[in-house]
Amino acid sequence: MKKSVIICAALLLVLSLFSGCAFIKKSTSVSPPADSGQPVTSETPSPSAAGAETADKLTGIVTIESVKSEYKSDYIDTAIEIPKLTGLKDSAVQDSINAVFSDVMAAAQQDIKPWEAESREYASDDQDNINPYQIYLSYTVPYNLNGILSINLSDYRYRGAAHGGDTRSSYTFDLTTGRQLSLGDLMTDGSGCRDRINAAIQTKIDGQIKNNTLSEIAPFSDIGDHPSFYLTPDSLVFYFQEYEYFTYADGIQEYPIPYSDVSDLLKPEYASLTIKTIILDPYAANKLAIGDIGQAALTGNPSTGYMWQYTIDDSSIVEYSRDQYQSDAQAGEVGAGGTFTWDFRALKAGTASITFKYYRAWDDSSDSAPEDTIVYTVIIGK
Question: What distance in Å separates the CA atoms of residue 30 and residue 40, rounded to the nearest whole number?
Answer without folding.
Answer: 9
